[in-house]
Design brief:
Blueprint (H helix, E strand, L loop, with lengths): L6 E7 L2 E12 L4 E8 L7 E9 L4 H16 L8 E5 L5 E6 L4 H14 L2
Antiparallel strand pairs: 1-2, 2-3, 3-4, 4-6, 5-6
């Protein structure tokens, strides 16, 4: 992680909430991507490394693609597929919260593009 100060996000989803301290990791197709530590997202009082993808575009086709990706990952339950841990869409920007693995930052966007676009 970089030496710059992390952003603190409080993610609220209905009656659930959790805190994420995150650092910018780059720019993705949908918006900014962050790597961070989420507290109490998996089990209470635990720290989990996560990747957050933001949806910053107002373009309807980009939003459709983003939500299609979320639906795809919400249905996957395999050890070799990154897990979608949560979605925060009650305020803007919308965030998708994924488990972080050492391969996520290198492979995630390529795999997603191939799955969604079939290329």
């Amino acid at each position: 992680m970089s030496s710059q100060k992390g952003r603190i996000l409080i993610i609220v989803h209905g009656t659930l909430w959790f805190a994420v301290i995150c650092w910018p990791a780059g720019q993705g197709h949908f918006g900014e991507v962050f790597v961070g530590k989420a507290y109490s997202i998996v089990t209470e009082a635990t720290e989990t490394l996560v990747m957050l993808k933001s949806l910053l575009s107002a373009d309807e086709s980009i939003q459709t693609e983003f939500y299609r990706e979320l639906e795809l990952f919400s249905r996957c339950n395999h050890d070799n597929v990154v897990k979608l841990l949560g979605i925060s869409r009650e305020s803007l920007p919308v965030f998708a919260i994924y488990e972080y693995t050492d391969l996520v930052s290198r492979l995630f966007s390529n795999i997603t593009a191939k799955i969604i676009h079939g290329s």
